């Protein structure tokens, strides 16, 4: 099976490759230049470790296949030790190339001699006229394009993994890097008369690793553990025997597993599972199934020698095509992840708005409590004056004016709150201090109720172009968060300090409290959605605040602990 991806060792596998077009009738070897013996596939092991002083090769051709046709014989050998050949040839990148046509001798011979006995190095391959004229001269470009596509796929999805933390992106990227390493190994050793045992072992390990991560990728993308448990067991079994095969390679120096199991099986199984997944109405796996089917068909055709191209060219065409197909599929998957994330973010925003509305109603209730009490006293005074017959016009007008003042205050409160929570469709210029003061005004009454001291210090103000209400909303969330933790921990003399300053042409608003800070184990989690240490907290306030600052202000929201408590920094 190795012949599909690698032109292996010396004579026997060379013979198999040369026989693709059935041109070779016999292949003979001589160690004394006189007596030639037939060389068959089973004779390979004899020459694997055998050292010779000289050797000759005689190749008998079936000339009937060369009528009106041209083929080319490529020979990779120790050409500097070549004594004689009865056919003409040219040298190209350490490869001897001879044209085969009707004028070629029936028997082709090559004679080699070494200064010291060594392993015989001779490997042949017959290629078509089309391959020689249209692919062979441009194989460097083919390899470069293939490696570029595969490496870009690796790099792209390796980066995506760190932003999504989806394991199948990681498996796919690692698979690509092992495929790339395998292809580079194939090409490097294709210019050698034979690979060393260690070189063969390394390439085989790369192959096994690429198959392992192919199966891991299939497991995750098809969600077989949840949706196809029996198939999941089979995939796990295949992964297991590949791991075992890697350990065996360290001793045997070659893969035993893929000497007996065709490569296409690794892609056939995900193809079948993908088809089952599509039947079960999982349309997200359609492109993946197409990709696996593509690989299965081409690898099968290559192993059956049904593609009239060299195996090394075939795999350099198929592998990057598979990368492109899977890149399209993973792009759709990434878009689905983004859409899902957007939907979750919309839900979080909705929940945040509901929480803000609850906070707004609570603040309005506190704002209205005093004027409502005042109105109650006015009504009581009017009633008492009526009972005592002291309700004259002047007194009535005084109380009506007093009542109107309270109603105006309540109306202004409603207007202030509605303006604050009204979404802004357009950006505008505003001072940071203005947005901060707006948030403080909203919270002032409830902070007074709990005797929480709040102070604002403006060192350097800045005018920016953005959404003022959203900035105020973030400050309000930070003040509310500080208020809640101060009350939860029952801090004596609770304080919230807000400072407005600038640093390197950026505005920095600091909101600090004296609630003894955030636990070190939680400080990296405070901005995660649904994380909260409050008994009735939603865990979305700080997350939404950071999202607003990151997305709408291109800034950052950070937190750190001080001796007194926690400090949040808004940098825009």
TrEMBL record:
Q: From what superkingdom does this record's organism come?
A: Bacteria
GO terms for MF: ATP binding; phosphorelay sensor kinase activity
Q: Give the E.C. number(s).
A: 2.7.13.3
Q: Which keywords, in A-to-Z order, does the entry hold?
A: ATP-binding, Kinase, Membrane, Nucleotide-binding, Phosphoprotein, Transferase, Transmembrane, Transmembrane helix, Two-component regulatory system
Which PROSITE patterns does the entry link to?
A: HIS_KIN
Q: Which residues form the Histidine kinase domain?
A: 363-572
Pfam families according to UniProt: 7TMR-DISM_7TM, HATPase_c
Is Transmembrane helix among the key words of this record?
yes
Reactions catalysed: ATP + protein L-histidine = ADP + protein N-phospho-L-histidine
- Which principal EC class is assigned to this enzyme? transferase
InterPro entries in the record: 7TMR_DISM_rcpt_extracell_dom1 (IPR011623), HATPase_C_sf (IPR036890), HATPase_dom (IPR003594), His_kinase_dom (IPR005467), HisK_dim/P_dom (IPR003661), HisK_dim/P_sf (IPR036097), Sig_transdc_His_kin-like_C (IPR004358)
Q: Where are the transmembrane segments?
A: 141-162, 169-189, 201-218, 230-251, 263-279, 286-302, 314-338
**What SUPFAM superfamilies does the database record attribute to this sequence?**
ATPase domain of HSP90 chaperone/DNA topoisomerase II/histidine kinase (SSF55874), Homodimeric domain of signal transducing histidine kinase (SSF47384)
Provide the protein name: histidine kinase
Q: Whose protein is this, by species?
A: Malaciobacter marinus
């Amino acid at each position: 099976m190795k012949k599909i991806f690698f032109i292996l060792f010396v004579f026997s596998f060379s013979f198999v490759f040369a026989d693709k077009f059935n041109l070779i009738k016999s292949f003979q070897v001589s160690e004394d230049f006189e007596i030639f013996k037939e060389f068959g596939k089973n004779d390979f092991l004899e020459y694997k470790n055998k050292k010779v002083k000289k050797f000759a090769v005689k190749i008998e051709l079936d000339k009937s296949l060369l009528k009106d046709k041209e083929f080319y014989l490529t020979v990779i050998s120790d050409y500097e030790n070549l004594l004689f050949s009865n056919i003409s040839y040219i040298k190209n990148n350490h490869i001897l190339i001879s044209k085969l046509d009707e004028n070629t001798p029936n028997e082709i011979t090559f004679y080699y001699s070494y200064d010291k006995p060594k392993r015989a190095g001779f490997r042949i391959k017959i290629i078509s006229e089309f391959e020689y004229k249209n692919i062979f001269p441009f194989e460097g470009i083919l390899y470069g394009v293939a490696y570029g596509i595969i490496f870009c796929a690796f790099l792209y999805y390796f980066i995506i993994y760190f932003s999504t933390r989806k394991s199948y992106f990681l498996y796919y990227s690692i698979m690509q890097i092992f495929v790339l390493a395998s292809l580079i190994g194939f090409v490097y050793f294709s210019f050698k008369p034979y690979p060393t045992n260690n070189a063969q072992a390394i390439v085989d390990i790369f192959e096994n690793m690429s198959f392992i991560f192919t199966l891991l990728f299939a497991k995750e993308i098809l969600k077989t553990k949840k949706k196809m448990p029996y198939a999941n067991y089979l995939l796990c079994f295949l992964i297991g025997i590949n791991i075992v095969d890697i350990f065996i390679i360290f001793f045997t120096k070659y893969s035993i597993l893929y000497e007996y199991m065709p490569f296409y099986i690794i892609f056939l199984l995900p193809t079948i599972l993908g088809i089952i997944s599509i039947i079960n109405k999982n349309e997200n796996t359609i492109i993946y199934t197409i990709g696996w089917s593509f690989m299965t068909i081409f690898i099968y055709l290559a192993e059956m020698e049904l593609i009239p191209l060299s195996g090394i060219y075939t795999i350099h065409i198929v592998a990057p095509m598979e990368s492109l197909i899977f890149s399209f599929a993973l792009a759709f998957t990434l878009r689905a992840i983004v859409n899902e994330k957007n939907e979750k973010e919309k839900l979080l925003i909705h929940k945040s708005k509901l929480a803000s509305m609850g906070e707004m109603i609570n603040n309005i209730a506190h704002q209205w409590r005093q004027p409502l009490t005042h109105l109650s006293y006015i009504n009581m005074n009017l009633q008492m004056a009526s009972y005592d017959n002291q309700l004259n016009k002047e007194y009535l007008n005084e109380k009506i004016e007093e009542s109107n003042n309270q109603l105006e205050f309540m109306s202004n409160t409603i207007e202030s709150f509605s303006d604050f929570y009204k979404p802004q469709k357009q950006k505008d210029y505003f001072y940071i201090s203005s947005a901060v003061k707006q948030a403080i005004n909203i919270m002032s009454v409830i902070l007074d109720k709990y005797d929480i001291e709040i102070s604002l210090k403006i060192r350097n103000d800045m005018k920016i172009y953005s959404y003022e209400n959203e900035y105020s909303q973030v400050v309000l969330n930070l003040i509310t968060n500080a208020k809640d933790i101060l009350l939860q921990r029952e801090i004596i003399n609770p304080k919230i300090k807000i400072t407005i300053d600038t640093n390197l042409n950026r505005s920095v608003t600091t909101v600090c409290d004296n609630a003894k800070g955030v636990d070190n184990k939680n400080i990296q989690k405070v901005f995660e959605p649904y994380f909260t240490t409050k008994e009735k907290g939603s865990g979305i306030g700080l997350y939404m605040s950071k999202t607003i600052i990151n997305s709408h202000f291109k800034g950052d929201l950070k937190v750190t602990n001080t001796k007194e408590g926690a400090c949040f920094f808004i940098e825009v």
